[in-house]
């Protein structure tokens, strides 16, 4: 489970989204992920993003400076500025990497032709598995939206809204096919995200419950509710 959303494995797709014309394809970004030539500089940028996300998680965004990021990376501050112009730019990159990981997994589930119920369970598992592999990203994404530069919010908002719509569409498709009861799709979608997104507040990756078990328990609760026997409706 810890490798479900390995950042290095998916980095080429994320990098392509951030660089509309790659050397490998020449096509505009935003379509299906394709293999690209990932340079050492690209990987170094990702290392900085990961280290900064961990620092933001440990000591807080406001208490983390470019100096502290440079020290954690064991690089000179001017070298850090070669990769990122500001802490805000790193913050934006963390947000974008997080949502791009989820969108990449959505595309994989879509290609697999999963039924709505199966797909929703996998989407919940995707969010929870990031709490194993990208815990700092998760906290940044949910707690530091307001610190995003205004110039970057529109793009990230678009991706966040698109991902919400992906799950909302699965709920509506499940209702239309008869797999789900005739529920309010908006409330149901909000409930799914409410369960999944809040888990980082209490989930302990070293605890007795792994992220997949929690995702399956969430899906069982969503699917069958809490009542048993004749009381179940």
TrEMBL record:
Keyword Zinc-finger on entry? no
DNA-binding residues = 65-84
Molecular function in Gene Ontology: DNA-binding transcription factor activity; transcription cis-regulatory region binding
> What keywords sit in the KW lines?
DNA-binding, Repressor, Transcription, Transcription regulation
| Domain annotation HTH tetR-type: ranges | 42-102
Keyword Transcription recorded = yes
Q: Which PANTHER family match?
A: HTH-TYPE TRANSCRIPTIONAL REGULATOR RUTR, HTH-TYPE TRANSCRIPTIONAL REPRESSOR KSTR2
State what protein this is by name.
Answer: TetR/AcrR family transcriptional regulator
């Amino acid at each position: 489970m810890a490798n479900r959303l390995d950042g290095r494995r998916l980095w080429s797709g994320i990098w392509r989204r951030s660089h509309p014309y790659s050397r490998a394809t020449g096509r505009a970004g935003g379509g299906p992920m394709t293999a690209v030539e990932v340079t050492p500089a690209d990987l170094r940028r990702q290392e900085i993003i990961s280290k900064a996300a961990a620092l933001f998680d440990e000591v807080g965004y406001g208490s983390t400076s470019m100096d502290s990021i440079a020290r954690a990376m064991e690089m000179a501050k001017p070298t850090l500025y070669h990769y990122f112009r500001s802490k805000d730019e790193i913050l934006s990159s963390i947000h974008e990497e997080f949502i791009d990981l989820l969108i990449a997994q959505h595309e994989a589930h879509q290609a697999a032709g999963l039924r709505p119920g199966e797909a929703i369970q996998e989407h919940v598992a995707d969010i929870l598995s990031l709490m194993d592999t990208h815990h700092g990203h998760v906290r940044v994404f949910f707690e530091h939206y307001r610190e995003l530069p205004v110039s970057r919010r529109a793009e990230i908002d678009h991706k966040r809204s698109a991902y919400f719509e992906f799950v909302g569409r699965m709920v509506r498709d499940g209702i239309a096919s008869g797999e789900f009861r005739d529920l309010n799709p908006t409330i149901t979608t909000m409930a799914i995200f409410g369960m999944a997104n809040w888990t980082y507040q209490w989930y302990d990756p070293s605890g007795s419950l792994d992220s997949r078990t929690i995702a399956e328990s969430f899906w069982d609760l969503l699917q069958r509710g809490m009542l048993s026997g004749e009381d179940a409706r």
